[in-house]
Amino acid sequence: MQQKVTKQLLSDRPAVRWTALVLLAMAMFFGYMFMDVLSPLQTALQDTKGWDPETYGHFAGSETFLNVFIFFLIFAGIILDKMGVRFTAILSGTVMLVGAFINYFALTEAFEGSALATFFENNLNLPEAWWNVTPFFKGMPASAKLSAIGFMIFGCGVEMAGITVSRGIVKWFAGKEMALAMGIEMALARVGVAAVFIMSPLVSRLGGTLNVSRSVGFTVILLCIGLISFIAYSVMDKKLERQVGNNEEKDDPFKISDLKYIFKSKVFWIVALLCVLYYSAIFPFQKYAANMLQCNLGISDESAAAIFTVFPLGAAAITPFLGRYLDKKGKGATMLIFGALLMIVCHLTFALGLPALRGGDQNVVAENSIISGKVIDSSLNEKGEEIVINVVFSPKNFANHDVAAAFTGKSVGESVVFNPRTAFSDMTIADEAERSEAASQKITNFLKDKDTNFELAQSRAVDRDFTLVVEKIQSPMGVFGIVIAFLAIVLLGISFSLVPASLWPSVPKLVDGKLLGSAYAVIFWIQNIGLYAVPMVIGGVLASTNTDVFNPLSYNYTAPMLIFASFGVLALIFGLVLKALDRKHHYGLEAPNTKADNAAVEFDAME
After folding, report:
1. In a designed cystine with 518, which of 56, 77, 323, 418 is the match (CB 3.0 to 4.6 A)?
2. How far apart are CA 258 and CA 138, in angstroms?
3. Which residues pair with 416 in a beta bridge?
4. Closest Cα partner for 333 from 585, 525, 606?
């Protein structure tokens, strides 16, 4: 490691460099809020917009589509190395805002019934074939298609912002508290995730009516503030660059041909693969976590979101301390290994532990029971044929307490006659038209079956009695199971502190300074491949393993959680390999980051 002493710079003044960090972190805070604003609203999206698990999975994966298949992240890294942090920060903030607004518009009432909605209903209906790598498929709602397009554009901006912020932190904190600074930036981003999991369900229900676009619109406003913070940072960065004079870049400018040094490094690829495996078990999990907790614990979306907030808040609380430890003591590779182990334990708990703790079959229906039943009817089929509609629900799902009480005490084989319109009419909604529409959405979800063509238009006309036969009664999760779920989330939070806090500060130890932006871009690009594919895989697996389940509160998440756990196992293997390579080649991954003085650092080229 080569050092050279420089004059007193803005980055040498603690108050100034930490102010720069706050501005960078603020923009990422709002970016992470938007990224997960719909995560706690998966059930609401299915009820109000017709987004089933497969649709939601394709939407969730769309965020990384352009980054992966158009190689936007690679170009972003080159832009960052050629144009610098200031230009790329403002560009990324602008792109985030444009994509977020498109996503918001797709979920508004103004889009429904518009010519644009008709266009998307009639187009992008691609078959679900092996060659269709896009998020679009036949039967995908128009709102989901346009939302996916907006999320793609937002994804380009937020991932570009991610590599820009990492490069900016290295620029201001090299040879100083770099791991601590990265830890704090990541901690604030985690707080953004926690904040949106709490805020999103609450904002969506303001005024007593459910409107998912309201939550999205609120975060769009926050992204405007994030763009302003990037602009403010750029003013500071320009002053620092005037002091530095860009002498290093003038003497040894970045050339695209230099990327070969990244691609030829074995240890770099180990880090990149470890990154994609670990983050594929975290961020896609976040998209499904609230619904998974609802299904496993039998709780509301607000309660599920509140439990899950322990994950990002715990990570936020611990990450800065781990960053400080890395700066002073090192042990980065060891932290990666422990983080992978904790993640495996967490996902196995959700895959196997919670289902085992959940009560078995019951003899009679209680208020919180999960009921599997069937409705036999002829008028719900366009051909007038007698069909069987499978339903899964809990009496507490009904807005009408009298209907819920009619199911209480029933045994397997018994039937209940009830009117779905009455059952789902929430009298707390003051406006009669809104109350009727909300009931129609619930009826659509309740009576939806893959063997029928029952849609929202039909549900609006449903106002008669149906006979439902009770086939299976299951008990909900007990208090002990909820405690176990809470502890598993805590473990995941610790894991999410250990891995990122040690992973990102390790990259500058492996990469020449002039290639750092491109190096981060390549890692993010590889990571985005997983973030694109995994949500769609999970959505497909969830749908295929729950073929007879149409209530979004009753999905079985065992198979998806085992997939997440398998990613943790592979990440653990790569972590062990990385530590062995560091011991052999002395990359310094186990060494502390802080130098003996405040000298600027020039990183050696990777081996």
Report:
1. 77
2. 43
3. 468
4. 585
**Cα–Cα dist 332/330, whole Å:** 6
Closest C-alpha to 59, from 173, 123, 148, 139: 148
pLDDT value at residue 553: 65
Q: How far apart are CA 478 and CA 203, in angstroms?
A: 29
Helices (runs of H) and strands (runs of E) counted in the chain: 25, 6
| Sole residue written with tokens 């007879």 | 548
pLDDT tens readout for residues 148-163: 999 999 999 998 998 8
Under 8 Å between Cβ of 532 and 61: yes
Give pLDDT < 50 ranges for the chain. Answer: 1-6, 247-252, 450, 596-607
Residue 45 to residue 30: CA distance in whole angstroms: 22
139 with 566: CB under 8 angstroms? Answer: no
What's the CATH class of domain 14-358+479-602?
mainly alpha
Residue 387 per-residue DSSP state: E
DSSP string, 279-328: HHTTHHHHHHHHHHHHHHH---HHHHHHHHTHHHHHHHHHHHHHHHHHHH
Phi, psi of 300, rounded to the nearest 5 degrees: -75, 165
Q: How far is CA 201 from CA 1, 37, 519, in A?
A: 50, 9, 38
User: Using the 8-state DSSP alphabet, how is residue 11 labeled?
Assistant: G
- Give pLDDT tens digits for 275-329: 889 888 888 888 788 888 877 776 766 677 778 878 777 777 777 777 777 777 7
Task: Give phi and psi for 374, each to the nearest 5.
Answer: -145, 145
User: CA–CA distance from 160 to each of 520, 569, 577, 601 (Å)?
Assistant: 10, 29, 29, 25
| Domain locations along the chain | 14-358+479-602, 370-474
Residue 555, Cα to own-chain centre: how many angstroms? 19
| pTM score | 0.67
DSSP H or E segment with residue 213 = helix 212-244
Which candidate, 286, 284, 306, 222, places its Cα nearest to that of 29? Answer: 222
In this structure, are strands 466-474 and 415-418 parallel, antiparallel, or unpaired?
antiparallel
Paired residues of 472 in beta bridges? 372
Amino acid at 507: V
Residue 139: left if φ>0, alpha if ψ -120 to 50, beta else—which one? left
Look at residue 2 in the predicted model and tell me its pLDDT: 47
- Predicted pLDDT of residue 606: 34
H/E segment holding residue 151:
helix 142-173
Reading phi first (left if > 0) and then psi (alpha if -120 to 50, else beta), residue 599 is in beta
Residue 600 forms beta bridges with which residues? 4
Rounded Cα distance, 418 and 412, in Å? 17
What single string gives the DSSP state of each residue in 454-480?
A: --HHHHTT--S-EEEEEEEEE----HH
Residue with tokens 């008669």: 464
Burial class (CB in 10 A: 0-12, 13-18, 19+), 591: middle
CB contact at 8 A, 584 and 270: no
